[in-house]
Amino acid sequence: MPDPDLRRFALNQATIPALRLDAAIAASARSGLGGIGVWRDRLEEIGLPAAKRALAETGLFVPSLCKSAPLTEPEGPDRRRLMEDNRRALEQTAEIGADCLVMVVGGLPGGSRDLADARAWMREGLEELIPYARECGVRLGLEPLHPMYAADRSCLNLLAQANDLCDALGPQAAIVADVYHCWWDPDFKNQLRRAGAHRIASFHLGDWLLPTRDLLLDRGMVGDGVIDHARIREWLFDIDYEGPFELEIFSELDWWRRDPEEVLRISIERCRPLVTAKEDA
Ligand code: ZN
Prior knowledge:
Blueprint: E1 9-12, H1 21-30, E2 35-39, H2 40-46, H3 48-58, E3 64-66, H4 77-96, E4 100-103, H5 115-136, E5 139-142, H6 159-169, E6 173-178, H7 179-182, H8 188-199, E7 200-205, H9 229-238, E8 245-247, H10 260-275
Parallel strand pairs: 1-2, 1-8, 2-3, 3-4, 4-5, 5-6, 6-7, 7-8
Helix pairs in contact: 1-3, 4-5, 6-8, 8-9
This protein binds zinc ion.
């Protein structure tokens, strides 16, 4: 039975990678979670029909499908192949019933030092995908990543940048805001307000550990790091955010080594106060 407190709460499946997607869906449902964030490679592992069956049996929602192919490659066969993959990803987003495809837009293409050029290609790629997203009935979920990933993963690094793009791209573009990537930004609160509740497709939770031992795979459980989640939750109350919360922890050194049931239990313990609706809080 879904726990009413947790109806907006999803584990991003990357938090419990030991489980196959169908098992992760079943475990999430048993724990009372409302949803699950899905990854394309893990979806392809079991196939769409099996995933849809598991979702239908449990009633779990899918806040987002992760993730897009890079958009920053300049014109040529590589870019055409990547854009084709992005169109396929948008179709999968619709097929799995997710609101948005998480856009991890790519960093500098090989050998380049031209960040402005990478950002121009990103924008062009987004513009090209918007009509197809509309056709599929899904949104492009622009997720700014921490600037330490600007070279290799995403040259979209600020919520302000994502808001500017959404202003230009229209309602088929949305924001996936992740505290892990944005907590340090002096403009975080203002840009959430500027986005408004509707533009935020999903809100990702996690914590910044001190020390961080790995650039990519050492994210912390909510409460174990330095992020002031309670304050950020207040900002979301202030803009009447009623969308999903996804806990997303890439943690090769800790959480990925634990029993997924334990991860689920502790995730719920830590996140329950953040993910309950305003009137229940
Ligand atoms: Zn995220």
